[in-house]
Amino acid sequence: EEGAPGRRGERERSDEGPAERGPGAAFHMFVLMEDLLDKLKLLSYEEEALRRHNMRPLSRHYFALPTNPGEQFFMFCTLAAWLISKAGHLFEQPQEYDDPNAVISNVLSELRSF
User: Fold this and answer.
1) Taking the first listed entry, what is the main subcellular location of this protein, grouped into a coarse class (predicted)?
2) Which of 7, 59, 66, 69 is nearest to 36 (CA)?
3) Lower Cβ count inside 10 Å, N or C end of the chain?
4) Are 74 and 96 in contact (CB under 8 A)?
């Protein structure tokens, strides 16, 4: 087992926590959020999605920090519905007080149909 090159290191690496992967691992979610925001801006999300629902633009770290889970979930659902519609599928915009499990189920079902 020790003679198998690479296997031991791979197994150990999968058990590492975020602090053991390197100093930048804790900031990876912030980089992902900034990339997401750049892509949404390229799709004109501010004009097409946010103005229609009278919402504020996202900050650079909106989904990276858990500030208001209810608001963040609704924003996610709004963006998901908009992106699905932008891809050419009819998708009803979820309402703020809809059952979260039903909303996620509908989003996942629609994405599976792609």
Assistant:
1) other
2) 59
3) N
4) yes
Q: Tens digit of pLDDT for each residue in 63-76?
A: 988 899 989 999 99
Is position 55 within any domain?
Answer: yes
Q: Which domain holds residue 106?
A: 25-112
Contact between residue 58 and residue 85 where contact means Cβ atoms under 8 Å apart: no
- 66: Cα separation from own chain's centroid: 13
pLDDT tens string 5-34: 544 444 444 455 555 677 788 888 899 999
Structure token pair of residue 78: 């709004």
Report the number of distinct structural domains present in the chain: 1
CA distance 60 to 34: 5
Our measurement of the distance from residue 89's CA atom to the centroid of its chain's CA atoms, rounded to an integer in Å, reads 20
